[in-house]
Amino acid sequence: MNTQPGLTFTKPGFLSLLQDGGRQGVMHLGLATGGAMDRNAWAWANRLLDNPFGTPALEITFGGVEFTSHLATQIAITGAEVQCRVNGESRPLWSVINIQAGDRVALSAPKVGIRSYLAVLGGFQVAPGLGNSCATFTREGLGGLNQDGRPLQEGDHLPCHAGSARVLNRKVSERWRPDYKEELALSVIPCAQIDRFPASVLDTFFNNPYTLTRQTDRMGARLKGPALEPLGERLISEGTSLGAIQVPADGQPIVLLNDRQTIGGYPKLGAVTPRSLDALAQRTPGTTLRFRPVTLHEAQVEERQFLSFFTATGNRR
């Protein structure tokens, strides 16, 4: 057993990936940014512990994780509604949790939501790779504990910093915790090839529900609902963006996500805003959702507020 400062995972869960803010400046190499799917929950986990914005945390999909700590430290778990137990005793989510060397921590399958985020005081001590990031990109074999894109495995040991100064036992107020059960309306910036979508098609898109299908992963969210019929032929392939809504030949929209392909030739109706993507990342297949148009200015203000809050230094509340 590894006794170096860190966490040793006896149960790695269904899909647990080290994620940070994503790798930048690599799309020209055919690589997407990756990074945390629910950036809001990921950022809160780090903020609780005074970790700088961008610090790696563990993205745990569908729970089922167990680990042993080999140091006295603090952790925070946000995102999906799982049950967290330390040595068999329940501990709250969205809060700072104190653990000691030898403590065993277990996360159940989620009751609500999909993805949990485990942050540790000082961050996991994993060397960044391409794009100055350790974000795990399984399809391309990049990032993660050994920079090979491998999801967390049984017996893996994530090193932690043993000398980090403790933080206050704070928690996130209920008013700031997202409700993953509420009706989902995704904000969309109409853009790209919007001129290929007649008013009648846009009316169909924005005034009808769509269902999140099982063919949804970190690459994209495939939807089922009223088919959309854009004008014109398929386009020459061009760069894609996070949240872009592609409409393929069958008319069923696809929202491109963190591990998306970097180019595509389908017409794009617009882009889902980053904050709405956070909410989408926590919804299970079968979820009904709608879309609502917003202006670029509205989306920019929302993103600036997010970054201003989570990148601020000084006292954290």
From TrEMBL:
This is Allophanate hydrolase. One of its GO terms (molecular function) is hydrolase activity. SMART domains: AHS2 (SM00797). The keyword Kinase does not apply. InterPro entries: CT_A_B, Cyclophilin-like_dom_sf, PxpC. Pfam families: CT_A_B (PF02626). Residues 28-307 form the Carboxyltransferase domain.
